[in-house]
Write a sequence for this structure.
């Protein structure tokens, strides 16, 4: 008769990332919710793993916290053992392995790793809960992800657009503007996304972090 | 000629059909598809989501009347179906009703009771009483055993004074000086419990402000409620419906026009068909668009 006990919980939220020629932008909202209640308006889903790689995870906050702690420790251990920072390719593989290690009691996290690689080009890797990953131009995750996909498909990939010059790359400012407007659009229609968003812009020069205010209702 | 008595099997079928038809004749819900739906769900079909109003609704009695308040967000699961819907429904010129629960249910039940009261007023030539609406609503909802999912805050002023009631989906009612309903009811009630004073000591402006704050608490702290605040103030002399008396703002508005130029979408085939309208259609078109009897040219795509 009892419903049983579930080890997992969905804390809501949305994350979006896109990669350009020499930059990457990753954003995630800061609202933590359970059911119809808000636990906090200031919970970050993003951790900076290296100067060049930033990780955002949607799903369950407890698993996200643990996963990010585990990865951060591993980054520090690598730095001490090898005397240098982990390359972004190595970071992406390590995340995949860490997730698959828990294949039979998964980390309930949907991850996006974004940043710039050793050549200085922007990248975005999108993961599933057990570590399968793929490089993409843009990625979304979380409850509001599906609402953001059409905007990114149209304005980053320029799919189905006859008149647009598909070879023209988006500039960093255009991309940042797109991310902010997409976040606003998602917040209008999805109840677990809102309050504020962390936006990280990663370039060769470094990583900037902005807290962008969103609707709080 | 004598009717042949039915055999046992035929009689059973006949009885079942007769009772089935009898139910349909009397109105009420038809549960004929319930078994089929249960079977489909067990095979993995997803039931359609009803638009619920998530909702924060509240009501308060002050010295001269009642104030009703509501948010304006309608949800279908985790998605906002309507950003600015109306949850304060008209029952009579002196009676209004806020509705939480399934949007179709609150809309239809309030409209139904509103028509019944209009007929009553035409018959008796007297102002409607709040208890009339209350009794009709509760009897109807009880008859439907909670299947009509409407949780209401009913308020108004009649010849016997100001009244405020809540009606629950299964048909029970309460009468209180301040009430809240909906998923945001706890957030709103917290504000009421902190700030409420007896009705003799609170005037219209203070009451409006208190209800507004209660609804705002629901809007900000409950995910099922959002957008704007509607208020309705009812006294013996007047009824004021303040639609969107408070609107929540977007901190950073959209700052770019994302436009699609003509030609951006690929046209694979173009077919232009001229309709010959008959006289009736032409007349209707002319009246609607204030044209003289000129033939309409289709504009170039």
């Amino acid at each position: 008769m009892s419903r049983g006990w579930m080890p997992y919980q969905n804390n809501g939220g949305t994350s979006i990332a896109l990669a350009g020629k020499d930059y990457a932008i990753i954003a995630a909202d800061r609202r933590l919710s359970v059911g119809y209640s808000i636990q906090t308006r200031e919970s970050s889903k993003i951790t900076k793993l290296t100067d060049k790689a930033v990780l955002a995870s949607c799903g369950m906050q407890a698993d996200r916290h643990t996963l990010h702690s585990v990865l951060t420790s591993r980054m520090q251990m690598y730095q001490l053992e090898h005397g240098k920072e982990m390359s972004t390719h190595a970071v992406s593989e390590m995340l995949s392995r860490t997730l698959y290690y828990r294949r039979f009691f998964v980390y309930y996290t949907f991850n996006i790793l974004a940043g710039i690689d050793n050549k200085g080009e922007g990248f975005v890797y999108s993961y599933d809960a057990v570590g399968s990953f793929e490089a993409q131009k843009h990625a979304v995750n979380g409850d509001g992800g599906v609402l953001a996909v059409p905007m990114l498909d149209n304005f980053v990939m320029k799919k189905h657009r006859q008149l647009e010059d598909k070879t023209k790359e988006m500039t960093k400012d255009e991309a940042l503007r797109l991310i902010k407007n997409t976040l606003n659009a998602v917040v209008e229609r999805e109840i677990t996304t809102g309050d504020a968003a962390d936006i990280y812009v990663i370039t060769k020069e470094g990583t900037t972090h902005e807290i962008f205010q969103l609707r709080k209702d | 000629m004598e009717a042949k008595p039915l055999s046992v099997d035929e009689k059973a079928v006949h009885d079942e059909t007769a009772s089935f038809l009898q139910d349909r004749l009397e109105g009420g819900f038809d549960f004929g598809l319930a078994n089929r739906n249960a079977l489909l769900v067990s095979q993995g079909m997803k039931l359609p989501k009803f638009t619920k109003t998530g909702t924060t609704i509240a009501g308060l009695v002050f010295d001269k009347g009642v104030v009703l308040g509501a948010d304006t967000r309608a949800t279908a699961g985790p998605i906002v179906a309507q950003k600015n819907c109306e949850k304060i429904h008209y029952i009579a010129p002196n009676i209004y009703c806020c509705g939480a629960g399934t949007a179709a249910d609150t809309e239809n039940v309030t409209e139904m009771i509103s028509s019944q009261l209009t007929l009553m007023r035409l018959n008796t030539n007297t102002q409607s009483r709040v208890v009339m609406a209350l009794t009709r609503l509760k009897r109807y909802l009880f008859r439907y055993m909670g299947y009509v999912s409407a949780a209401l805050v009913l308020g108004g002023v009649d010849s016997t004074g100001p009244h405020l009631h809540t009606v629950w989906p299964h048909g029970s009612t309460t009468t209180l000086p301040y009430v809240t309903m909906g998923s945001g009811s706890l957030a709103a009630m917290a504000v009421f419990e902190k700030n409420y004073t007896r009705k003799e000591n609170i005037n219209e402006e203070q009451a409006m402000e208190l209800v507004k704050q209660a609804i705002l608490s629901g809007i900000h702290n409950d995910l099922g409620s959002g957008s704007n605040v509607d208020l309705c103030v009812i006294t013996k002399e007047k009824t004021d419906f303040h639609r969107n008396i408070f609107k929540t703002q977007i901190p950073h508005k959209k700052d770019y026009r994302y436009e699609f130029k003509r030609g951006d979408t690929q046209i694979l085939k173009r077919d232009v068909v001229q309709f010959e309208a008959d006289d009736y259609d032409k007349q209707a078109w002319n009246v609607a668009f204030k044209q003289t009897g000129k033939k309409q040219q289709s504009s170039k795509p």
In short: Chain A has a mean pLDDT of 93. Residues 61-82 of chain A form the longest helix (22 residues). The CA atoms of residues 96 and 186 of chain A lie 28 Å apart. Chain A touches chain B through 31 residues (CB under 8 Å).
